[in-house]
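[Discussion] Sanity-checking designs against the backbone

I'm trying to build intuition for which residues belong where. Below is a structure token string of 561 positions. I'd appreciate it if someone posts a full sequence so I can compare it with mine line by line.
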């Protein structure tokens, strides 16, 4: 029991599969195992696309302890499409500034979102149990999603065209056949072990203490990281503000620390008091000692088995890359799986999930490993080099680029993906094929809104038009034809002049932010995937090229340029 939170207990319901004898197991198009943040996002997204989903979890509550804390802007944008972004942002603590200290002095500070005109903040801090509760509430509102608590997968058998699951409940066992199985049961994945699949990489011995404390404090909502502070010499400390006046403090302990000794309340209180001073009242909310690893499965797709989140890849907590990367896994996977199930794309499209997200996992692991090596130098020489870098950082810009207290989560730019259409026209800026689409303030039929509200969930051709009066009947007919394709392509027109048109497909970029971010001029066209990644960009609106881009993005014409 926490001081600021009471864990919900979700109702177990006897499954209908236990109602009587059955000749064969019930067959589902998709079963998801694990109702953590990643599994819940996958289930909500699939169900909102019209796919019946069965989500199984062996527990009957949300995660214990605050665990994941920081949710990045890209994750919040994904949650917006699922109707959860506002709840998480309002409940959590937004922030964008980080400060790094060495000894008693500040080394430098950084801004994760130095430009304005984005809907979401760079980061929102929210305890994982709160985050999961918002997702559980969204799941309950989502038609076609069957979330079953206290349902543990006891056995799994892989067949040619499905996976057979044996599920244990308080009332007995039953079996399910899943056309596709999404495995999201965490770093200690029981299903991965049952299947004999391994994760490979590095395991770090250094131990860290989490102390979540409840206190009233005037500290800014920023990320503060100390190297060798006077209150914890020779080690590092991290401070974050969370909801409910809860503050996360991470103390580096070293590899030889005794976990049971370090978790004793008197010892934890002494560490916290040394940091905060003798006069600031606080109460312990949650205490844990942890180690971590940077490793992943070789492949995230094994036939009809699809691994996502921590069961597929694990990183150190420095950089907030765990939950954020897992949610981006399912954002990449779900639209592809939906098209495959509907017969609108070949199953080989799911290989691109493996290709794109193992690339992203390697990027995360590389950044996490580098941060860990900087924070926990393994010998006197690396310690001396680290401390020299920190000493130079206040005055020398090059040294600041070498300081690494955890490169914070950013979305992967999938520029090497086979699903992209290579550029044939010259462009500037970062909105290249493979990039996640940037947001911008616009106006539409509903008044002031955001560009990303018009992108995502399906394929979109975003066309910049300087004068809507120049849109000919032939172009209007071509736009309607794209929307009627087997894989529909919505066309969104972006103009810089106020328009009398009240069409939901017309957005007015009166501030010119979208035009600048997309290096647009009259006729510039971007093709946006359902996960809001750019897959093609052209200088002219040509329906044939848009269709080729969509065919390529759905693995139906990979060699097409």
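Best answer:
Here's mine. Compare freely.
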């Amino acid at each position: 029991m926490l001081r600021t939170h009471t864990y919900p207990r979700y109702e177990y319901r006897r499954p209908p599969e236990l109602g009587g004898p059955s000749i064969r197991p019930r067959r589902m198009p998709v079963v998801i195992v694990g109702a953590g943040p990643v599994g819940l996002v996958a289930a909500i997204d699939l169900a909102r696309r019209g796919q019946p989903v069965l989500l199984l979890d062996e527990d009957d509550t949300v995660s214990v302890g605050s665990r994941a804390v920081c949710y990045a802007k890209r994750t919040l944008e994904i949650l917006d499409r699922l109707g959860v972004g506002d709840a998480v942002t309002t409940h959590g603590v937004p922030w964008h500034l980080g400060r790094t200290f060495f000894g008693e002095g500040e080394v430098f500070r950084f801004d994760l979102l130095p430009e304005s005109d984005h809907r979401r903040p760079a980061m929102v801090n929210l305890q994982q149990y709160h985050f999961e509760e918002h997702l559980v509430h969204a799941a309950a509102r989502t038609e076609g999603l069957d979330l079953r608590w206290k349902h543990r997968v006891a056995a799994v058998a892989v067949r040619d065209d499905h996976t057979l699951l044996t599920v244990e409940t308080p009332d007995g066992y039953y079996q399910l056949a899943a056309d596709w199985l999404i495995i999201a049961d965490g770093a200690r994945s029981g299903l991965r072990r049952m299947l004999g699949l391994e994760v490979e990489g590095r395991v770090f011995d250094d131990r860290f203490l989490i102390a979540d404390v409840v206190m009233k404090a005037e500290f800014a909502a920023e990320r503060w990281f100390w190297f060798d502070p006077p209150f914890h010499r020779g080690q590092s400390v991290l401070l974050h503000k969370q909801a409910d006046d809860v503050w996360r403090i991470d103390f580096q302990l070293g590899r030889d620390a005794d976990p049971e000794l370090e978790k004793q309340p008197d010892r934890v209180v002494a560490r916290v008091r040394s940091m905060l001073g003798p006069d600031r009242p606080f109460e312990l909310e949650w205490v844990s000692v942890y180690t971590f690893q940077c490793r992943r499965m070789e492949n995230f797709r094994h036939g009809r088995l699809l691994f996502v989140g921590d069961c597929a890849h694990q990183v150190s907590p420095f950089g907030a890359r765990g939950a954020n990367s897992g949610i981006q896994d399912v954002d990449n996977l779900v639209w592809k799986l939906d098209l495959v199930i509907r017969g609108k794309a070949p199953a080989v499209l799911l290989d691109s999930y493996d290709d794109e997200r193992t690339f992203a996992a390697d990027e995360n692991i590389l950044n996490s490993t580098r941060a860990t090596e900087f924070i926990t130098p393994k010998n006197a020489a690396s310690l001396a080099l680290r401390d020299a870098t920190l000493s130079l950082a206040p005055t020398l810009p090059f040294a600041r680029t070498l300081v690494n207290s955890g490169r914070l989560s950013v979305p992967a730019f999938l520029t090497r993906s086979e699903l992209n259409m290579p550029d044939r026209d010259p462009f500037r800026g970062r909105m290249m094929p493979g990039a996640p689409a940037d947001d911008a303030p616009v106006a539409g039929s509903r008044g002031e809104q955001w560009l990303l509200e018009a992108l995502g969930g399906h394929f979109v051709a975003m066309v910049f038009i300087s004068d809507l009066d120049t849109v000919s009947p032939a172009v209007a007919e071509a736009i309607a034809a794209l929307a009627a394709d087997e894989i529909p392509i919505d066309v969104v027109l972006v103009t810089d002049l106020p328009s009398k048109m009240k069409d939901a497909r017309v957005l007015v970029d009166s501030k010119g932010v979208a035009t600048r971010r997309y290096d647009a001029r009259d006729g510039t066209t971007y093709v946006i995937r359902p996960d809001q990644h750019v897959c093609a960009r052209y200088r002219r609106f040509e329906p044939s090229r848009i269709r080729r881009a969509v065919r390529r993005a759905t693995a139906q014409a990979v060699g097409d340029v």
